[in-house]
Every structure is written in C-alpha cells, then in structure tokens.
Amino acid sequence: MKEINMKYGQGKMTAFIEEKNLLKIIESNAFKQDKTEDEIISEALYNPIDSERLKDIVHEGETVCIVISDITRSWQKPHKFLYKIVEELNAGGVKDEDIIFLSAQGTHRKQTREEHEILLGKQLAKRFEVYDHDCFDEEGMEYLGETTYGTPVIVNKKAIECDHIVITGAIIYHFLVGWSGGKKSILPGISSFKSISHNHSLSLNEGLGSGTRDVVCSGNIIENPVHDDMMQAAAMVKPSFMFNVIMGPDGNISGAVSGNYITAHEAGRKLVDSIDGVNIKKKSDIVIASAGGAPKDINLYQSIKTLINAKEAVVDGGYIIVLAQCSEGIGEIKDIKDMILNFDNMLDREKDLRENYTISKYVGYFFCETAEKYKLILVSEINPVLLKNTKIILTKTLEDALKIAYDGENKNLTVNLMPHGATTLPKLI
C-alpha cells in the first residue's frame, strides 16, 4: 500500500493506494537552478532573444509604457525585475517622467496604493505612479481594428500614445490560451471588455449545444483560436520589448526570457514544459488531484486550473477526484455563482454563456460540463446546496471519494496522483 500526503487547505489528506494500481505520481520534473533570481533576471535582460537590448531600443525624449500584471499575479515577484527594466530604460536615455506603469487588470478590480507598492517595490512606488486599466472606460481606449475572428481590438490609450510598450509578466500554463504571458499583457490585459469577451468566447465551438473546444486547453496553441486571436491583437499594438519570468516548483524565479514578444515567449514556453510538463505513459481510471492547498484551493473559482490539468491524466468518463477545501465557497464573483446555481441543464448554461460571455461564467460552465462527461468528485467543505443543480459529487474526505469510485467497480482501477495539480500538466506520450 502506497501512502501519499496531499495538501488540502492549511492541512493535508492522505491517499492510500495499492501499489499495483498506481500508475504515476505526477510531480514537476527535477530542476536544478544554481543562479540567484537577480542573476537570472539580469542575464535575460542583457541577452534578449531576436532583439536588441532594451537600452538600445529606446532613446532620450521617447515615452515608454511598462505593462505589468496586477496584484493577483504578485507571485511573479515583479518587484524583483521591474527596477532592472527601469535601469535599462534610464541607461537608454529615458527619463523617469517619460515612463508610465500600466497594470493589466483585464476585467479585474482597481487596486490600492499598497498593492501597487507590493508590485513595484517601495522605491519604485515612490518614483512612479501606477495606472490601473479599466476595461469599461471606453473613452480611455483606442480602436485599432478587427481580427480575422471578428474581435474588435480596443486598447488603453495610455499605452498606445507612448513611443514604446514594454510588456512584463510570467509564463505558466493557461487553460484558454495554452500559456500565459506575452501577448496576454495586451489582450485581455489592457483591452476593452468588448475585446476580452469576444476573444474568450472563442473557447466555445460554433453552434449552440456544441460546448467547449478541445484545442482550447493548457499547453496548446496549435489551432487554438483564443491564442491566435490574441496574437493578432498584439501585432496591432506592436510591443517593443517583452520580459517574462518562469517560476520554479519552490515559488522562486527559475528562468526568464526577454526580447521579441513572439520568439522569446516561445523559448519561455519550452522552459515551462521542461519543469511542469510531465510525461505519462497511460491515462488512469481514477485521477486524484490536489490544488496544492491554500490559497490555491480557497474557492471553486481558483480550483479550475487543477480540474483542467487533472482531465489530461484520466480516461474518458473516468473518475476525477479534486481536493479543494473551498473555505470561501464558490468565490465572490457573481457570474460563476449564477452559472452554477441558476441552471439545471447544460444547454441553458451554454446559451447564457454565449449571450454574455465572461471568464468567470466559463469557469462555472467548465466545472458543470466536466461533471457531465466524467465522474467528478469534489472533496471539499463547500456547501452542498451550491452544487445541487450540477452532477458534481461532493464528499468531505478522500476516503469517502474513493469508496464512491470503487463501489460496484473493479477494485483494480488504475490511479494517477497529482499532488500539485494546479501547476503540473500531464502529457501523454
């Protein structure tokens, strides 16, 4: 019997699995980094990919907009690299008064001064003001054109009016666009709600009742319309330079790329794959995935990454057991609650999603759709009333979840375990 501890909220749950049934414990690949975070950042900045150094791109008298991620992405440690980017700009002759920071809020809320300080660090926060993008402020945006997918590209004027746009952030797996970072700083980052909504709606197949597109998933950009559409939007904006970090399993910066926003991002994706893309030889009958404990399982909304990754390790129609405490329930965003609570069938959910698409609605829809296609068991403290209109099975313990999975079934069902389901992506070879 194999004993595996899985994080759950602030504590843990233990999985006891017959060793003969255990296919794989899906963990991040072994990764050794002998450089400090500062060394990694500097090396990337001084050796850009398919680009001159930032200091050689800019000139005295030119204006620069540095696009940064918002407080929900503070784990990127932007205070570690933003001051180095400013140093590069200053070395190129750009004065502080010609530099603005624009936070890529997407559809997220406005931030506080204290949160700006967390992102920039105390010294930079004293030198610069941070502007929060407002996706509903149409007067503060400029229309640049339309993509081949029909998405209106409407972008923050503060960025467009600058001579240079520098995009920053981190590259991780993303359930809509394949990988985050790069072009996401533009769309959805500093785009209109109309642009964001239309772009994200490409995650659905054409025609009511057809559900989500299989190609719109973590780790895939091939024929992924959400990705392609974002790339077209970014091409209209023409960022001058990109700097993105890659995080290691320990939560520290383990890599960084800079330069051309297309080819540098490609190099970053390969590094993410080398760390968190885990090869598996076989999908299992049961996958047990932990979100990784708090805060990754604080609510159902935050647990979507775990569900999407877990799907890649289980056979069609198999058991997906997700450990997510959800101490704050579904989440505070109204749209996801409405999607889960207000409908009792998938067709009506899909119709509502198509009529007024939001990312939070999509998250709710995806949970419900997965429960239709698989046997989805959620080990959680969430109020059962919140899930009564879905096919999600709710238990309090992992032991109870496994009893359900094995009840009336072959006791030799195979199992894949994902202790860090929110970050590791299984890849069938």
From TrEMBL:
Gene3D superfamilies: 3.40.50.11440, 3.90.226.30. Residues 8-205 form the LarA-like N-terminal domain. It comes from the Bacteria. One of its GO terms (molecular function) is lactate racemase activity. Pfam families: Lar_N, LarA_C. Residues 281-423 form the Lactate racemase C-terminal domain. NCBIfam families: Ni_dep_LarA. This is Uncharacterized protein. It comes from Clostridium saccharobutylicum DSM 13864.
